[in-house]
Specification:
Blueprint: E1 6-12, H1 19-27, E2 34-40, H2 47-57, E3 63-67, H3 74-84, E4 89-92, E5 98-99, H4 103-114, E6 118-127, E7 133-134, E8 145-147, H5 149-157, E9 168-171, H6 172-177, H7 190-200, E10 203-216, H8 227-246, H9 250-274, H10 279-289, H11 297-300, H12 307-315, H13 320-332
Parallel strand pairs: 1-2, 1-4, 2-3, 6-10
Antiparallel strand pairs: 4-9, 5-10, 6-7, 6-9, 8-10
Length: about 325
């Protein structure tokens, strides 16, 4: 078996309770040709001390710890990790999660077999308190390999694989060739990162085995979305719109409209759940989201969109007060 170098990128920020388990899971890998890239985003806790002790204890491991001079957020940390990686492949691992022993081996075998730009494996979520495991980030595709950007982009828009940045093996040349980097200043931008990758991908493969345990703890972003997250969602919509305006491919325009309908609906649902008492902010965002491209009359009489999508698009573009009343009724039953 050919054993190319894999760079595992791990962000470091307020992870003192989890980082050792994360690193131990990397140390236990059956695949040994690894480069561990840790980027410290000025963490205020003892994470760095724990990491330094781990590196000292396991000096045989190829660990590199980088320190940012100021706290700059996950986007900059991810980009620093990509830039400092020297492996053929890059694997992103969040510091509060961990991976199975055969994770990297399975992904490398898959990538080398299909000569693909990204390989995706299954992720399971584990709750901190109950240890219950749930399958939130499913791969909904039966093929082992997709080739050709048009087919890949279509299946991405239809949600056939999870958008999370981790638990994917990225060919570094693919990222560098297409200048794919995270957008500075944005938080929780997996949706946008996955979208930008899908715009450029010519090959992606899948394995059905679970290789990643996504740890749902009380500090997880999924439980703690605030106004800054929803402002980010607005910015992400703006990036989708940029792609819509830039492309001359009619089919891609249709698919981006489909993406916008789903993303706008999800944003409003999440915002209502997390910020239920701030009705004025919900209405403001509903109004802002209406500015993004939506379905035209010709779209409504075409077969390019489902009845459900046409209905959702209508409900997303009502007068704001009416839109809120109908949304509240639908959401609360």
């Amino acid at each position: 078996m050919h054993t190319p170098l894999v760079s595992i990128n791990i962000p470091v920020y307020k992870c003192e309770s989890f980082i050792l388990k994360c690193l131990e899971s990397v140390k236990a890998q059956t695949y040994q040709n690894l480069e561990i890239i840790l980027v410290n985003d000025c963490t205020p806790d003892n994470s760095v001390t724990i990491i330094e002790e781990f590196i000292k204890k396991h000096s045989h491991l190829n660990c590199k710890l980088f320190h940012l001079k100021t706290n700059q957020g996950l986007s900059v940390v991810r980009n620093k990790g990509i830039d400092e990686s020297t492996g053929k492949y890059i694997y992103m691992l969040d510091s509060d999660d961990y991976i199975t022993k055969d994770c990297i081996e399975k992904l490398v075998l898959n990538s080398e077999k299909y000569n693909c730009e990204i390989s995706v494996a299954e992720t399971i979520c584990e709750y901190e308190n109950t240890k219950e495991r749930v399958h939130y980030f499913k791969i909904n595709h039966t093929k082992n390999l997709l080739e050709g950007n048009k087919e890949i982009f279509k299946y991405f828009i239809k949600g056939y694989w999870p958008v999370i940045g981790p638990n994917k093996l990225y060919l570094k040349h693919f990222l560098d060739k297409n200048n794919l980097r995270f957008i500075k200043g944005l938080f929780s931008q997996d949706e946008l990162w996955a979208f930008h990758c899908a715009e450029k991908l010519e090959s992606i493969s899948f394995i059905n085995d679970i290789t990643y345990i996504y740890y749902l703890n009380s500090a997880s972003t999924v439980f703690n979305k605030t106004k800054v997250n929803f402002e980010n969602h607005q910015t992400i919509v703006e990036w989708f719109v940029k792609s819509y305006k830039k492309t001359e491919d009619k089919q891609k325009k249709i698919l981006i409209k489909e993406k916008l309908i789903g993303f706008k609906k999800l944003t409003l649902q999440m915002q209502y759940k997390c910020m239920r008492n701030d009705i004025s902010y919900w209405k403001a965002n509903y109004n802002r989201l209406k500015k993004a491209p939506s379905l035209s009359f010709s779209d409504y009489i075409s077969s390019n969109f489902t009845k459900a999508q046409k209905k959702e698009n209508l409900l997303l573009n009502l007068p704001t007060n009416l839109g809120y009343k109908i949304f509240k009724k639908r959401y609360e039953g």
